[in-house]
Write a structure and sequence with these properties.
By secondary structure, the protein is α/β, with parallel strands linked by helices. It has 4 domains: 91 residues, de novo design (two linked rop proteins) (Up-down Bundle), CATH 1.20.1440; 163 residues, Fumarate Reductase Iron-sulfur Protein, Chain B, domain 2, CATH 1.10.1060; 173 residues, FAD/NAD(P)-binding domain (3-Layer(bba) Sandwich); 142 residues, FAD/NAD(P)-binding domain. It has 25 helices and 18 strands. The strands form 5 sheets. A 5-stranded parallel beta sheet has the order 3-2-1-4-18, sandwiched between helices. A 5-stranded parallel beta sheet has the order 6-14-7-8-9. The chain is globular and about 80 Å long. The N and C termini lie far apart (78 Å).
């Protein structure tokens, strides 16, 4: 019998692994500005290269799809070719033997549906739909379209105060976003093609740390004055809600020369930044510092005033020239299981609101179960640890990898001692004498995909009881819309209904945005909504004011394109931080910030940024 050779990786296999990794990096990074028709064609070509050629839908269909997309890109196609492409893709999707063929067909069908305007534009005019995409990937990824390469360049030039000023052109909360932003801008960063995305949020944190005068309106040396303020217009705008969306709209309306008045139901401003984010992520003194600077820019705030409880929407419409509804999503959602009214069941909204008001509950020695898998669930779990809980278990009905919480938040919770009980769905709260003693959960089995992720179903296994003394419910927030309905505001599925530009149908001069219109989202998305509202309200009032940055952006220094490790902000040891609400994350050093900012490839000056104009110093 012949001997069997022990297989070892060959140079060719290693080279192919490098090619696959390069393809993966390019797929993850830098898609902003790319032609979706070209991307669809590239994907079909890759799938064709993987095909074994056995089945006709794959062997012939992929080649035909590639040829049709090539004809569309060359400008030689007509509407009939688009229909043929759709039929061919559907045939591959429905009849190919394996995933190489049917997933390629599905991808082309999604591209035809999601980018119909681009395919039609190529056929009719020989190019993509004009103005449909940002040229700079990180700016495209940021909901507020902050000039990220610009402020990174200013950090690199040791001009942190100017970096803060540039951020404020598009986002009046540089300090908040330096601490709590989910940094979607890093996902498409083209530096990821080389090694890893630039640490954008870390550099923003460095800028605000190194420019304290930018948050002190009384400082004579402060460059923190608004980039440009238009003359007073005499128009007044009521902003209902003192969270990130409302305050962003108020800030830009003030710069446009209008007189915004913010009505906030609670005693303090900040919205979910104060009442939904723990101090270990966003210290309250930092929030107050940012709010103090904002109010000094011409914003009047009336706290402790409920709309429509203390003043009606009708009264506001009579007194003001426009009204912006940005009431957020502060209503708690219930589990809907038996025993939920037992003593010891607390919603995340209630808990974080109490902490925001400075009333910290005492969980000393308690076994705590947290229901949910988002960022709020991680916030209450980690807060429970700091409040003295003996144990904290996060119960989630899907897999741990399906959690919507950011990876760093989940990892932080685990490091601080929280357990994750995945694939278990709550059935009922177990109570004795009206007090929580446990949470009965049903084991789950992961199943078919539904809306982009696999959906669990009840496993063929008996329920189990998790002993606990307290249940924290963190399954989302809703909009308290009952009072708005009474004032004539249209509401569907618990959300305010607004048009494409935020206008509320049937109520001229009334606009809505932020979480009350979209449902619970992130701070940066609320900021983006407030920014758009300011522009649209200004137009409604008959103006066309712009917001400007009156400074210069350093030219690229060159170099810095070779592979280099990413510098991340340090964190306090888990054993130390789990005992207090002091900040978890630190700041980059001068050396780290200089290196990290030098990793930026300056897409605003190169590539599509150069061809399409990577910067506008006003909006």
């Amino acid at each position: 019998m012949p001997l069997m050779e022990i297989e070892r990786p060959t140079a060719a296999q290693a080279a192919m692994a490098d090619v696959r990794e390069e393809l993966a990096r390019r797929a993850r990074s830098g898609s902003a500005g790319a032609c979706p028709v070209e991307l669809a064609g590239a994907l079909v070509g890759l799938c064709a290269a993987q095909s074994c050629g056995k089945c006709v839908p794959c062997r012939v269909g992929l080649a035909q799809m590639a040829a049709l997309i090539g004809r569309i890109l060359d400008g030689g196609a007509d509407a009939a070719d688009l229909r043929t492409l759709e039929r061919t893709a559907r045939a591959a999707y429905e009849s190919a033997d394996c995933a190489i063929g049917y997933e390629a067909g599905a991808a082309v069908l999604r591209a035809l549906d999601g980018h119909a305007a681009d395919f039609a534009s190529h056929v009719e005019r020989g190019r993509c739909a004009a103005g449909s995409r940002e040229a700079v990937p990180c700016r495209s990824g940021c909901p507020a379209h902050v000039d990220i390469p610009g402020y990174v360049a200013l950090v690199h030039a040791d001009r942190p105060a100017d970096a803060v000023r540039l951020i404020r052109k598009d986002n009046p909360f540089p300090l908040a976003c330096a601490l709590i932003c989910e940094h979607p801008c890093e996902v498409p960063c083209r530096r990821g093609v080389v090694d890893a995305p630039v640490g954008i949020r870390g550099l923003k944190r460095y800028a605000v740390e190194r420019a304290p005068e930018a948050f002190d309106p009384a400082s004579p040396a402060s460059p923190a004055a608004a980039p440009f303020r238009h003359p007073a217009t005499g128009r007044r705008v009521a902003v209902v809600g003192g969270g990130p969306a409302g305050l962003t709209a108020a800030y830009y309306l003030a710069l446009m020369g209008h007189a915004p008045v913010v009505f906030e139901q609670r005693d303090r401003l900040g919205g979910m930044m104060r009442y939904g984010i723990p101090a270990y992520r966003f210290p309250r003194e930092e929030l107050d510092r940012e709010l103090g600077w904002l109010l000094a820019q011409g914003i009047e705030a009336r706290t402790g005033v409920s709309v429509p409880g203390d003043v009606t929407l009708t009264a506001l419409r009579e007194e003001f020239d426009a009204v912006y509804l940005a009431v957020g999503a502060h209503a708690e959602k219930r589990l809907g299981v038996p025993g939920e009214d037992a003593e010891g069941v607390l919603s995340a909204v209630q808990m974080l609101r109490a902490i925001g008001d400075g009333l910290q509950p005492d969980f000393s020695g308690e076994r705590v179960a947290v229901v949910g898998g988002g960022n709020v669930a991680m916030d209450v779990a980690r807060s429970a640890v700091r409040l003295g809980a003996a144990s904290v278990t996060v119960v989630y009905r899907r897999r741990a990898e399906d959690m919507t919480a950011q990876r760093e938040e989940v990892e932080g919770a685990i490091a601080e001692g929280c357990d994750i009980l995945a694939l278990h769905a709550p059935l009922r709260v177990v109570a004795e004498g009206g007090r929580v003693t446990g949470l009965e959960v049903q084991p789950q089995v992961i199943g078919a995909y539904d809306r982009g992720r696999p959906k669990p179903r009840a496993a063929d296994a008996p329920p189990v009881t998790l002993p606990c003394d307290r249940v924290l419910v963190a399954i989302g927030q809703g909009v308290d819309s009952d009072g708005l309905i009474d004032d004539g505001v249209p509401v569907e599925w618990g959300r305010v209904v607004a048009g494409l530009f935020g206008q509320v149908e049937g109520l001229p001069g009334v606009f809505a945005g932020g979480d009350c219109e979209t449902g619970p989202a992130t701070v940066i998305r609320a900021i983006a909504a407030g920014k758009a509202a300011a522009r649209n309200i200004d137009a409604h009032l008959g103006f066309s004011h712009d917001i400007r940055f009156d400074g210069d952006i350093p030219a690229p220094a060159g170099g810095g394109c070779g592979p280099c490790g990413r510098a991340d902000a340090p964190e306090r040891p888990a054993a130390e931080r789990r005992g207090d609400f002091a900040p978890v994350e630190g700041c980059l050093t001068d050396e780290e910030a200089a290196q990290e900012s030098g990793r930026c490839l300056r897409c605003d000056r190169f590539g599509l940024g150069a061809l399409r104009g990577g910067r506008s110093l006003s909006w």
